[in-house]
Structures are given as structure tokens and as C-alpha cells.
Amino acid sequence: MSKQDASPLSRMLGGGEDFIVQGKKYKVKPLRLKQIDEFFSDALSIGPAFFNMSPDSKPKLDKWIKNQLFDSDDNPMTLEKVIEADWDLQDLKRFIGEVLDLSG
């Protein structure tokens, strides 16, 4: 394994990766194996993030934000908090992509 292929210790331990949105630092944590079926059954859009803001999808999105996204003080984020932080649809799409990328 080359140095380029090595994963950071934080990723190997499931501690997550830093994630910058609108100039603020967050931490995104990977899914655990026991969460994968539930994540897929919630059917969040990994394409257009617009669909994740539908009335039916918002509670599911909020659940995954609370589980996988943390602020700089390691407090769980919520959908309401990311809206207040002025995230846009691209930021939301990047977050979902980051969860999936980290999870392998």
C-alpha cells in the first residue's frame, strides 16, 4: 500500500472527516454496517438534493444529519441548524456524498 492509499487514522477509527461548508467546519462520520439497510430504505437522493427537502423526506434527512454530522464542538447538527447556517442544495448534496464516500 502506498502512502497515497493510506487512510487517515480518524477514518479508520470511525471518527469522521472534517467537512467545510459556508466557511464553517463540521465533522462527518461514516455509516456503521448496522445503519446501511436503514440508510438505503430511507431512499435519500444522491442525485438532485432538491428531492431530500420534500415534506416526506425531511424527517429522514434530519435523522441522518443528526447521526452523521457534528459541529466544531462535536454537537449533533440538525436540518434546522444547517438551514440556519445558510447551507444550499449543493452543500446538502456534498454532505450526503461525503457520508457515502467515508462509508466505503
Structural notes for this entry:
By secondary structure, the chain is α+β, with helices and mostly antiparallel strands. It has a single domain (3-103), classed as rbstp2171 (2-Layer Sandwich), CATH 3.30.2220. It is 40% helix and 12% strand. It is built from five helices and three strands; from the N terminus they run αββααβαα. It has a three-stranded antiparallel β-sheet. A hairpin with a 2-residue loop joins strand 1 (17-21) and strand 2. The longest helix has 15 residues, at 89-103. The radius of gyration is 14 Å and the shape is globular. The model is unreliable at 9-13 (pLDDT under 50).
* Termini Cα gap: 17 Å
Helix/strand-derived category reads alpha+beta
Give the second-level CATH assignment, the architecture.
2-Layer Sandwich
Q: What can be said about the biggest beta sheet?
A: 3 strands, antiparallel
Helix content: 40-55%
Average pLDDT score: 88
**What sort of overall outline do the alpha carbons produce when their principal axes are compared?**
globular
Q: What order do the strands of the largest sheet run in, or round the barrel if closed?
A: 1-2-3
What string, H for helix and E for strand, traces the elements in order?
HEEHHEHH
Which fold name fills CATH's third level, the topology? rbstp2171
CATH level-1 class: Alpha Beta
Q: Which strand-content bin applies to the residues? A: 5-15%
Number of domains: 1
Radius of gyration: 14 Å
The total count of helices amounts to 5
Number of distinct beta strands: 3
Q: List the uncertain runs.
A: 9-13
